[in-house]
Amino acid sequence: MTSEFASDCSNCAALCCMALAFDAGEMFGHDKPAGLPCHNLDGFSCAIHAQLPESGYRGCVAFECLGAGQKVTALFEQTWRDQPRLARPMIEAFRQMRDVQELRQMLKAAAALPLPEDVAAERQAWETELTETAQELAALAVFDPAPLRAWLKGLAAHVTR
Questions:
Q1: Strand ranges, E, within 12-116
Q2: Domain range for 104
Q3: Contact, 19 vs 35, CB < 8 A?
């Protein structure tokens, strides 16, 4: 995974620890609804980070935001902790940015495929559009991933077996 898709928790407002929901069980030690901070959160850091697996939080260890958390945090001047009214917009931006980052990662991987010139140009155009989308909150809010997901599925025809 390239650094542009790596989580950087030190530059994030703990969005995964606040935005996501999880149920107590094999992967998580307690129930947590979406939009509320995890009870293990201390500021923007996990109080039990060094002991997540043995504390029953293997799901936290397995989760990868693909850099969406720090990208969203950088788009806002304040955080949900500073201004609680920002919780909902940050959650929505985090959800959208996670989708954008996943799609960007797929497009980067598709660059290694033996694509015809016109399809390779389309791939590059999608990648450029998504990179620009990821840099602006307004663009993120209106981005519809469905056409790109359909286009990516069509790349299967270019994979040799």
A1: 41-42, 45-46
A2: 3-20+63-158
A3: yes
Residue 106 lies in a domain: yes
Please state the domain count of the chain.
1
Under 8 Å between Cβ of 59 and 29: no
Answer whether residue 15 is part of any domain: yes
Tell me whether residue 129 is in a domain. yes
Q: Is the pTM of this model over 0.85?
A: yes
Closest CA to 91 of 73, 66, 115, 67: 73
Residue 77 pLDDT more than 50? yes
CA-wise closest residue to 13 among 58, 57, 66, 72: 72
> pLDDT at position 1, please?
46
